[in-house]
Automatic annotation (TrEMBL):
It comes from Gimesia algae. Pfam families: DUF1501 (PF07394). This is DUF1501 domain-containing protein. It comes from the Bacteria. PANTHER family: BLL7424 PROTEIN (PTHR43737), DUF1501 DOMAIN-CONTAINING PROTEIN (PTHR43737:SF1). The lineage of its organism: Bacteria, Pseudomonadati, Planctomycetota, Planctomycetia, Planctomycetales. SUPFAM superfamilies: Alkaline phosphatase-like (SSF53649).
Length: 451
């Protein structure tokens, strides 16, 4: 067992002593040590290819009729004040608050006809492609957990699944994706709430240490000593790998945005760590988009993040249109910067992006000047991954109340993402706790217009 000792027996509020904080052999994530996690991932097999997914969850449910399914001919109480603007895709219009998206619309595909939403304020359906009802023992695994199980890590110093969702008062929005019946070995690695320099290990944030510089110095010293200690040759291979992750600079550097050109950070929009709108949701932190690019660049297969607060019922918390004037421009800047950055680095064919929320919003504006929950139809945007972009899939009726053509289920979106990762949903299975093989989606096939 490898331990970084502090020389003092400070204790945290949860009873964990600082002396035992970084014990490589017993560093636990939900009761399973890091070497065991790595061993479990290795048993599932790994592939040489490095395809990735970035899932951007718009917590609360974005208003489809104010984003890219505008109805300018509808009555005022339906269409609202938003003005559609032309894009570089003939016939496609988007909200006037998203001019950069309009200029890059050919890099995205727009789905106006997502159906099957549960209507729950949670990320579960967007993370798993499944409904919460009729779950097997242990629960359905998320996309990232499934990819971790089937493909393992692309680099021994980098976890396959990272969740950037910040802490929120309403936890179901902050859920980065559960491992379900696949077990904690395939849970997401979660940086701290700020998503930058500190990382959560054993549920203890490094910033809670009263002598962080000493800890970092100890890590550096331990690594140098380990490289020359003959006994290191005999320890378990997975413990070595766990030690490598903790002491490798690759993951820490990916999370350190200070290493980026300030001009690129400005292009992404940086953003704020403060909760957006009112305080039970996440921030408009555009640094997350840049961090997601850095993570997939070093080998992470799936990055999930929650962005903003899109549950706008109106007064007394501000009108929906006031919130749109804050959220839409920030999303416009961060999302287009991400796509542009991936393309400039030659990564756009290997990285798939999906942007969506848990449901849509009511067509009719409420007396409180808001839009309420509307699970009958919602929307999504996809990009990258070698998909056919620059198109609109599906349509709604004249008031954006229900689907008029080409309904698309959550399962079809997931089948498409798995396809982009090189996973065949018609043959790939994961085994549940009863030993039964389970298909990755419920009867869905990749979206034919995209592949």
């Amino acid at each position: 067992m490898l331990t970084i000792e502090s020389g003092k027996q400070h204790r945290f509020c949860d009873g964990i002593s600082r002396r035992n904080f970084l014990q490589i052999g017993s560093l636990a994530m939900g009761g399973l040590s890091l070497p065991q996690i790595l061993r479990a991932q290795d048993l599932s097999g790994k592939r040489d290819s490095h395809k990735s997914v970035i899932m951007i969850f718009l917590s609360g449910g974005p208003p489809h009729q104010d984003w890219f399914d505008l109805k300018p001919e509808a009555p005022a109480e339906i269409r609202g004040p938003r003005v559609p603007i032309a894009t570089n895709v003939p016939g496609l219009e988007v909200c006037e608050l998203m001019p950069q998206l309009a200029n890059m619309a050919d890099k995205f595909s727009f789905i106006r006809s997502i159906v099957g939403a549960e209507g729950r304020h949670a990320s579960f359906q967007c993370m798993t492609g499944r409904k919460t009802s009729r779950q097997p023992q242990g629960g359905w695994p998320s996309l990232g957990a499934t990819v971790s199980k089937l493909q393992g890590g692309s680099d021994p110093a980098v976890p396959p699944f990272v969740g950037l969702s910040p802490k929120m008062r309403h936890y179901p929005w902050a859920d980065a994706g559960q491992p379900g019946f696949l077990g904690v070995a395939h849970a997401p690695f979660k940086p701290s709430a700020e998503g930058k320099q500190d990382m959560i290990l054993n549920a203890v944030n490094a910033e809670r240490l009263d002598d962080r510089k000493s800890l970092l110095a100890s890590l550096d010293s331990m690594r140098r000593q380990a490289e020359v200690i003959e006994e290191m040759q005999g320890i378990d291979a997975y413990t070595k790998q766990a030690f490598g992750i903790l002491t490798s600079s690759k993951l820490a550097q990916a999370l350190d945005l200070s290493k980026e050109d300030p001009k690129l950070r400005d292009r992404y929009g940086r953003g704020s760590t403060k909760p957006a709108g009112y305080g039970d949701a996440g921030p408009l932190l555009n640094d997350y988009f840049l961090m997601a690019r850095r993570l997939v660049e070093v080998g992470v297969r799936c990055v999930t993040l929650a962005y903003g607060r899109w549950d706008w019922h109106g007064k007394p918390h501000g009108t929906i249109f006031e919130h749109e004037e804050e959220h839409f421009p920030m999303l416009d800047q961060g999302l287009t910067a991400l796509m542009e950055d991936l393309q400039n680095r030659g990564m756009d064919k290997d990285v798939s992006i999906v942007v969506w929320g848990e449901f849509g919003r009511t067509p009719r504006i409420s007396p409180k000047v808001g839009r309420d929950h509307w699970p009958k139809v919602s929307c999504a945007m996809l990009a990258g991954g070698g998909m056919q972009t620059g198109q609109v899939i599906g349509s709604t009726n004249r008031f954006a109340e229900h689907v008029e053509s080409r309904p698309v289920g959550f399962n079809e979106v997931f089948a498409t993402l798995y396809h982009n990762l090189g996973i065949d949903v018609n043959s790939a299975t994961v085994t549940d706790l009863s030993g039964r093989p389970m298909y990755l989606v419920d009867e869905g096939q990749p979206i034919r217009e995209l592949i």
